[in-house]
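User: Hey, quick favor. My workstation is busy. Could you predict this chain's structure for me?
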Amino acid sequence: MPIIANPTLARLRDGKLALGFGVSRLRTAATPALAKAAGYDWLFLDMEHGALGFETVSEICLAALGQGITPMVRVYASALDEGARALDNGAQGIVVPHVDTAEFAREVAAAFRFPPQGHRSWGGPAASYGFRLPGAEVAQAEINREVLVVAMIETGRAVANVDAIAAVPGIDCLFVGTNDLCGDLGVPGQYGHERVVDAYAAVTAACRRHGKFAGMGGVQDEACAARYVGMGARFVQAGTDQQFLLAGASARAAFFAGL
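Assistant: No problem, here it is.
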């Protein structure tokens, strides 16, 4: 069986916007189908802040593979082994928070690719082939090309080191975690503050220099979101299941309350 392609990686390679649907509360295999129907390209399965267990994450990832939507899993910065396990069980990409240095970026890149590019362990037949492999050597090379490895830039220290981080082979995308970055820069919730704008300028410029994708998450203000997409952000987390549910349910409740 041929490898199941990573549709988000394909969109990014074509210079297109790839929209992410955050998942921290939904639990069923319908999640990727609903996100796809709503116009999203990738799932942001949050094991750092969300309430998802590993078995649930794997089930949602496996369901996503048949829906044409990329399952991405965010792990703890200190749990890179869990990221590799997620890739073995259906994920097509990993998001790692708090990548502040090139040294840690190299650890991240090596953890999620097979030799010679990294030191990911071989776990046997892969979900990305429907568990029918063409042979380990071919499979490992193809999987290396289809895995999307994302480093989160969330602190002033990371911004100061962003050029060195972007230069690390095997890191595909630098994804600005805007809420944490705002907090670290001393301007919590101020998505359009000049310090945040300068940080996005540094990240997007580093991505252009080194052929990486720029990403954006956590921006609630639409004018700011449009600005950062205009600066080059293409891997964009648009919101979360909790936000979408509250927004839709609140609007519907307000309508009936006003009758």
